[in-house]
Design goal:
Length: about 220
């Protein structure tokens, strides 16, 4: 594709990040969390009720009591993170999500929420590292790709995004295509169809190739 045409397409996608589809990142609550039907089911039912009513103080108290009763249950800390974040206490939310992830490193929803709390705390680069970790655990986890795209654009601006894409194209055109589709096209449109081919390519990359992509992006701009 002609470089000038490609650039105009990217600029249009970046403009889309200002629109409704790309306006904000989602923080997951208990309705989105993977929950066993047998482990902590009563606690989860109570937490979901409090969350739906927006009773964040009650949800926090429940999460703290749950953590005392089941010290090794990561969801007890997920609940606290959700409550602390809603209460605007991001430092406490970050600590709760980090404890959640110590107990369950594969919890991509906790990693996503940790990234959001870090962003709200004014720590955007650490937020991007949290979302990066989420997609390294699960390359198909689209909310984290969306958040990465938004954060990258807001940190680097249009010039930084274009520079990163140019660097990736020189290094490996496949990496550039993956990043453009997942972090730009998907972030702007929230249309999962645009991500499917990129995810297929991404899953075919080695861990080293994925690491190289992120290293270039984090160093760009």
């Amino acid at each position: 594709m002609d470089r000038r045409i490609s650039g105009s397409i990217v600029c249009a996608l970046l403009a889309g990040l200002h629109g409704p589809a790309g306006a904000g990142a989602q923080t997951f609550g208990l309705d989105g969390a993977p929950v066993s039907q047998t482990v902590g089911a009563d606690w989860v039912a109570q937490a979901r009720g409090l969350e739906r009513r927006g009773d964040w103080t009650g949800l926090l108290a429940l999460g703290q009591a749950w953590a005392r009763a089941e010290t090794g249950n990561p969801l007890a800390w997920f609940v606290q993170g959700r409550a602390w974040s809603a209460l605007g206490r991001q430092a406490e939310a970050i600590a709760a999500y980090e404890r959640n992830l110590q107990l369950d490193p594969g919890d991509v929803q906790a990693r996503n929420n940790l990234g959001n709390a870090l962003r709200e705390a004014g720590r955007p680069r650490e937020a991007m590292l949290a979302w990066r970790a989420a997609v390294e655990v699960d390359p198909g986890y689209l909310p984290a790709w969306h958040n990465l795209g938004l954060a990258f654009y807001r940190m680097k601006g249009q010039a930084g995004v274009m520079q990163a894409l140019d660097t990736l194209r020189v290094t490996d055109p496949a990496l550039a295509a993956v990043w453009r589709k997942l972090a730009l096209e998907y972030s702007a449109t929230r249309d999962e169809r645009v991500a499917r081919e990129a995810l297929r390519v991404l899953r075919g990359l080695s861990a080293g190739e994925r690491a190289r992509m992120f290293d270039i992006l984090f160093d760009a701009g």
